[in-house]
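agent> Task received from the user: take the single chain below, predict its 3D structure, and emit structure tokens. No templates, no multimer pairing.
agent> Plan: (1) validate residues, (2) run structure prediction, (3) serialize to tokens, (4) report one or two observations.
agent> Step 1 OK, no nonstandard residues flagged.
tool_call: predict_structure(input=
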Amino acid sequence: VQITEKQGEYADSDWIKRGAGAKLENFKSWTITEKGLKFTFDPYSVGPYAAGDFESIVPFEKFSREMRGDKFYPVSFASYVDGNPPNWCRNGHFPSYNVEFGLAKVAGRRGETKRRAYFYKDGDNCPNGANCREKKYVIPGDEVIVARTNGDYSCVWYQPRRGNETVGWLKTTDLVLNKAPIKPGRINWAGNWVFGKSNIKLTRENTPGVFLIKGDALWQGLGDNVHIGELDFAGTPKGSRLEAGTGTDKYDCRVRMQRLGRYLIVSDNKNCGGVNVTFDGVYIRK
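)
tool_result: status=success, residues=286
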């Protein structure tokens, strides 16, 4: 059906019968969605009368039992970026998950230093495979941000009071989720927020509920190769979320923010500065 709609009177579905559809290179563009594994095809590379790309979704239930076993999990919070494998849990992608982030604390009695919750790797056969446990750990009472789950593990961001963050998988059984509802009226957005070399300042405007958003970010390459980015627009929070930008065109700078506890989680569309510049991160108010 999609072939006919895309190609009109010159529709050519014979390329599938000729075997072009089975070529590995035709399946290189994929991503995981809530409905299943989505492939995006470019008919120009497989047929002479093509007119743009089209897509096909393979539902999770269509996978073999082996693929749906202990090494393959349909996940809650299914939100993946650019086809990244579901077992990935990494700093660079964490703020971009389009999920309702949550807070949790490591289970146990505070001060119980002998009890440890270890981080697990996200490489092949991880986090639930052999030799996946890392040396890094958190202790009872430590607070983490939870993005999503994968089987028996939760993808978390741990931000100590000092030093750099640790991102990775923790066993969900080692966590106690904070299920208390967020009261929008008590959310304080204003302030100077910092993540690494990126800075975002939120200031109340005269119009009730509106905030002026100003920010600076940079990417440092080799030598004096420096790219910069900036934010300069207004936005209105809706509950614990705020989305704003310079416009609605796909090339305009846009950011998505979520307030959670002492954190401001930010992701942008990678159009807010020079090459490699991004405001993605978990910010702390200074």
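agent> Step 4: summary for the user.
The helical segments are 2-7, 14-17.
agent> Done.
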